[in-house]
């Protein structure tokens, strides 16, 4: 049983804040060593991780747990280890001439002590990925794993205690009481992954202390299948993206918008892919996982009951086993629960349309901005308007969810689906204060004298004259001077020399 005492939060926060001041986490060599230790821990604790995944997530096939849950974490961590030293370097920027003689740069600076609150659907990735990006940025980290994945929570605690320096990096386990209380403290940054409803509570609590937050939330991600789409390709990729992790993926297609002409073909193909992947008995298939808890399984069952007359495939469940069959629902009512709430399970509504603009584009533009928007099809005009006129955390053409494994792409939502970005460089920068720095000399002559009283008429006339050139930088002036010198030399030295050479040649030809 996880200790649910919220009184343990404050001592951890105080210790981390105090230890941050010794500057150790800012040392590049120290950060790199800690990240490498974390990578080594992920490899050495493999058997315990697989056991925890089976108990919490129902992942019976270790190959599944390895390929889709652990390898992406390792690859993301290796990417950070390989690149973060470059990310820490100052970024030099140009200094306008009107500022005076000086230079400017931007330096990534750690916030201090970062709280990471992981989710239960991918409890390793949503906890560790933000944590190691915060570590790479030089922060101390407190990690709160999800209480709904208690076995994975224990492994995460062991990972931190055995492989990281606990003076700077700690795990705070706890249940509902700890989860409620932890975001009310004065952290320097909070990173939360979870539902929009819980994210709103975290943001409100953080606002009382003016603590910045990164919210990785969710929503109803639409998937459009146009009339010229490759149905076999769409079905196999949607089946994989939707039913992986039993539908508990924040970027999984939440509902399908399929052109009326492709409806029957798509549903038939999707049914075939479900049985190809998980057999006709998914409950006993080792590649099909489980809903996180009996409570969450019951929620899925209630959704199915409400639209049972619209089910064209599946619909079976066993709440005590946390099992819900892959289910397809055709044209459920707009007021049904599965069309009003994020499903977060293996139920897939399929909505038919005829009018792309009226039944697809306009509703997407007027609804809440989703975490992802997917489009299968080759209509270039439809592709263009979806990409340019809609807003979503990500837009993917002819695939689903795979943008999340591209380390050089940012990951995050917009509006109700989230705030800010994580992944690689974007996570590093989100966990850093990008501090502007300006160096100046001590001269108060031009152009500095313009900003000092008295503001005489002559000074103001001069200011009006030079302001239009304010966009020029010291570098531009230096380049301009060099160019002017080059032009003068070319005109007064090079050209006369050329004329002299050709003049001599002409004279010699004339003599001949």
From TrEMBL:
Keywords: Membrane, Oxidoreductase, Transmembrane, Transmembrane helix. The keyword Transferase does not apply. It comes from the Eukaryota. One of its GO terms (biological process) is aldehyde metabolic process. GO terms for cellular component: cytoplasm. The chain crosses the membrane at residues 480-498. Pfam families: Aldedh. Residues 14-435 form the Aldehyde dehydrogenase domain. PANTHER family: ALDEHYDE DEHYDROGENASE, ALDEHYDE DEHYDROGENASE TYPE III, ISOFORM Q. This is Aldehyde dehydrogenase.
